Amino acid sequence: MKNNKIKISILGAGSWGGTLAWLLSKKYPNVNLWTFSKEEYENINKTRLLIRPKKLKLSKNVYITRDLNYIGQNSDLIIIAVPTNAFKDIIIKIKKLKIKKNLIFLSATKGITTKDNLRPSLILKKYLPGNPAAVLSGPNIALDVVSNAPIISVIACKNPKIATLLQKILSSNHFRVYLNKDVNGVEIGGALKNVIAIASGMSDGFGFNISTKAALISRGLIEITKIAIKEGANPKTLLGASGIGDLIATCCSENSRNYKVGYQFAKGKNLKKILSDLGQVAEGVETVRSMIKLAKKYKVKVPIASAVYDIIFNNKKPNIALKTLLNRPMPKYEIEF
């Protein structure tokens, strides 16, 4: 298969899915963009404009559709960029279609399903075991990617041939893609950083300084790594772009949805109001449920994530949660896995 002849489809026309369609349409003549939303489909078809991350005009070679069967029959590569809790349902629908055995799936979804604690790669393995699959993750704020600034990302895949092919497909002068074999580590880092980003938004909302932010990021990375190791990840992966890199970007960018959620919590708004104003999915809100479940399963302490959970689901006031966090008994050592 020649790279310039490959048929690429993106599932999900939100900030990240739309960005990937815009990015890939610059290189390839056959790009499909699927959306579940009838309103979104009609708006994009009529105006050729993405709504998020900002108004971007899509080229004519991007075909907009709501027909999943069309996607299944007219794709060599399907990139999935839908909210985590919609991921499984879409894969089950695709499973019922007659798709090619060599059809490649690339997950660009960062999260863990709250019902069964499955990551996207595990869902693909469970329902489409015969198809090649990989994961895309990294410090990729959509608004930053469309600015044409130098950006890096990571593709995690155990199949070197597929990984190299995907690297060539997605890489450009501004979007540099690295490879990693550690699917568990890349995926865990991409999912759990959203929880810490909510805490980071609260930190800024309280008016704390950069030293506080650095403390939060470093302690948050330890919590993520504790769970990642238990999930079979290589801890070295968390030192890379899909670990600390993604964590820094999401915790520090005012364009991060999860950061925005935390910031508004610190300003006294409730979850319903915050999500209504946001108008998009903030993965960390649901992922914190899974993070707490995994922490209990593996009997590891995740105090920052626990504080975020209490604020979101137990209606604990952010300032009270902060006091509880700071008055915990001191651990014997800084890093304990």
Ordered list of secondary-structure elements with their pairings:
Elements: E1 8-11, H1 15-24, E2 31-34, H2 38-47, E3 49-50, E4 56-57, E5 62-65, H3 68-73, E6 77-80, H4 84-95, E7 104-107, H5 120-127, E8 133-137, H6 142-145, E9 151-156, H7 160-170, E10 175-180, H8 183-205, H9 210-230, H10 241-252, H11 257-266, H12 271-278, H13 283-298, H14 303-313, H15 318-326
Helix pairs in contact: 4-5, 8-9, 8-10, 8-11, 8-13, 8-14, 11-12, 13-14, 14-15
Question: Explain this structure to me?
Answer:
There is one protein chain. By secondary structure, this protein is α/β, with parallel strands linked by helices. It has two domains: 3-181, Rossmann fold (3-Layer(aba) Sandwich); 184-326, N-(1-d-carboxylethyl)-l-norvaline Dehydrogenase, domain 2, CATH 1.10.1040.10. It is 51% helix and 12% strand. The protein contains 15 helices and ten strands. The chain has helices spanning 15-24, 38-47, 68-73, 84-95, 120-127, 142-145, 160-170, 183-205, 210-230, 241-252, 257-266, 271-278, 283-298, 303-313, 318-326, and strands at 8-11, 31-34, 49-50, 56-57, 62-65, 77-80, 104-107, 133-137, 151-156, 175-180. Helix 4 (84-95) links the parallel strand 6 (77-80) and strand 7 (104-107). The radius of gyration is 20 Å and the shape is globular.
